[in-house]
Design a protein that fits this description.
single chain, about 5% strand, about 70% helix
Length: about 240
Amino acid sequence: MEFKADFSKWWDIPTTDKQIGLESYDSINLISFGDFAINVTIFNSWLVIALIVLFSVLVTRNLKYEKDVSKSQIVLETLVLWLQKEAKDTSGAQNNQYLGMALGLFCFIMVANLLTFIPWFRPPTASLSTTMALAAVVFFSIPYFAIKNAGLKGYLKKFIEPMPLMLPLNIFSEIFSVLAMGLRLFGNMLSGVMFAMILSAFIPFVAPLLMQSLGLLTGSIQAYIFALLAVVYSSSVKEKQSEIT
């Protein structure tokens, strides 16, 4: 089995005369070992995860409870408390069981969008494979939290509400609602990248900065919406059960 590594394409800045879409993100292999290959999307996803882990370790290794705390700890606490409040208000739960999922999804999407300020960085969220993987996390979290909070019977009961005839529609609704999350995130992120590339051909210096600033704003909104929808879907059974009781 032959091992190959070529990172020259990783910092190759894409231009408008190159194909933009799935091929430009998923078909550029950086490392290959036989039939196993790591493309740009996977590598950049690992890079985003590594940066999140590194930041978390650096910030949490010297946590303080006094007034004299570091700015990084203040930023981290503000983010955690904000998402904790949003998750509780959205789910109606009294505990923080949804915080880890919401925080993980939000940070991954947010950091991926922050790194778009690096000209050659291709955000993994602009690839359908990544956004559908994030949607899969939400898809499997729905039965996990539902069974955890309401039991297997309570989870299965929602598929026949308000009547058993709704069973097929409820099943398809749960599947396609989660798929729509991944497609929406993919479309918004990829369209922003494509629009920035097109404008860069006409205004090489001003357009990239303006579009990246706008992309950071829209990317932050998309990260918030995705994390919030994940909490909504994951807590749906618990809300229904509480209404019945």
